[in-house]
Specification:
Chain A: Belongs to the SPCS3 family. The complex is a heterodimer. Chain A is α+β, with helices and mostly antiparallel strands. Chain A is built from six helices and eleven strands. The longest helix of chain A is centred in the first third of the chain and has 26 residues, at about 5-30. Chain B has four helices and two strands. In chain B, strands 1-2 form a two-stranded antiparallel ribbon. In chain B, helix 3 (about 40-70) runs antiparallel to helix 4. The chains are: A alpha+beta, B mainly alpha.
Chain lengths: ~250, ~120
């Protein structure tokens, strides 16, 4: 500590240690928050069509288009250390050999925490002029802001289109049975560990698993002949009957 | 630094003697300011102050942020505490130089001035 440089180095060195310890405390403090998420997910409509699920698909295959309703409350997953929440809906169905399950994400979203969408900068205290008058207009504006900015984590989705189609490696999805939709999430904190879905009935300290979060089992319908897009119309022409006809000739 | 000036004054260009000493002094002052040396007592104090200030500000930042449920408060309080520690400890303030060491005068140890080690006088 005898010279300026040595003092600066020592202070900075110990500062990094303190910063690390504060980060550890912050990461561990999350354990004391309660989590009790709930979700209700229901199938709205499912269609299986044959075509190219993506513009880059090399071949035509069957794909499923699953519309769903989601009613979820994830507000308790947002604590002071939550940066954002990643939520997804996954369709699960047994494989033909019944040894394992196939899963495909059909929809997902990122929910920003309040601290993520409204970052606090101490310089604002110096640059922003304090509110001069508390006029009715200002009150209205603040009320409006509150309306626009509810607590994050509430999802109310009605008859939602999927973001992603379900495809299968076998290329066949029609009349597959015992399909369920499930909700999953990933809490991404500012500092600390990522945490993933806690299933129904699971308990981890003060964190409870999701209440609900799984739809009733349903079956995939038979292949839809005439449907959206010209591709499907074309594919309906390529029926086994046509092949048989050519064989006769 | 002083050597550099000597070379220049020994060179062909004539340099005013008085200006050299003045520049020398200024340079020495600048060097001292840059090095910012403090005495032993001051070093002890800075060590203690920096450790306590940083540790307390870190803990305070966490508690304040947790109480307000705002992680930005933790971030900026912690950074502010560190900035304060830098300001308090790094510059060589005069109060870190209040008890300079009183060294023996030079040469006084040479002629058997009575320094004892293990009861034996060293000459």
């Amino acid at each position: 500590m005898h010279s300026t440089l040595v003092r600066a180095q020592n202070v900075f060195g110990f500062f990094t240690t303190v910063a690390f310890c504060t980060a550890i405390l912050t990461a561990l403090s999350v354990v004391f928050t309660t989590q009790e998420p709930s979700a209700k997910i229901e199938l709205r409509n499912v269609q299986v069509v044959k075509g190219r699920p993506h513009y880059y698909s090399p071949k035509k295959e069957e794909y499923a288009h699953i519309k769903f309703d989601l009613d979820a409350d994830f507000t308790s997953l947002f604590n002071w250390n939550t940066k954002q929440l990643f939520v997804w809906v996954v369709a699960t169905y047994p494989s033909p050999d019944a040894s394992s399950l196939s899963q495909a994400v059909i929809w997902d979203t990122i929910i920003n925490s309040h601290s993520q969408s409204h970052p606090f900068n101490p310089l604002q205290l110096f640059t922003k002029p304090p509110p001069a008058k508390k006029s009715s207009k200002a009150k209205k504006q603040s009320a409006k802001k509150q309306e626009l900015d509810p607590e994050p984590g509430i999802l109310r989705l009605k008859n939602t289109k999927p973001k992603y189609q379900v495809t299968d490696i076998s290329g066949i999805l029609s009349e597959r049975t015992n399909v369920t939709l499930e909700i999953g999430w990933n809490v991404q904190p500012w500092v600390g560990a990522l945490t993933w879905t806690l299933g129904e009935g699971q308990v981890l300290g003060r964190w409870k698993g999701v209440q609900g979060g799984k739809s009733k089992a349903f079956d995939m319908p038979p292949l839809k002949k005439k449907s959206v897009g010209s591709e499907t119309v074309v594919s309906s022409g390529e029926t086994p009957q046509a092949a048989e006809a050519s064989a006769v000739i | 630094m002083a050597v550099g000036f000597d070379v220049q004054s020994n060179g062909k260009r004539h340099v005013d003697r008085s200006s050299v000493t003045m520049a020398d002094e200024l340079l020495q002052q600048a060097q001292e300011l840059l090095e910012g040396q403090i005495d032993f007592e001051g070093q002890k104090q800075t060590e203690l102050i920096s450790s306590v200030l940083l540790a307390v500000s870190g803990l305070f930042a966490f508690i304040l942020g947790f109480a307000l449920q705002n992680i930005y408060v933790t971030l900026w309080t912690g950074l502010g505490g560190a900035a304060l520690a830098f300001l308090v400890v790094v510059p060589p303030y005069p109060f870190y130089n209040k008890s300079p060491e009183r060294w023996l005068p030079s040469g006084s140890g040479m002629a058997g001035s009575g320094i004892e080690i293990d009861g034996k006088k060293i000459n």
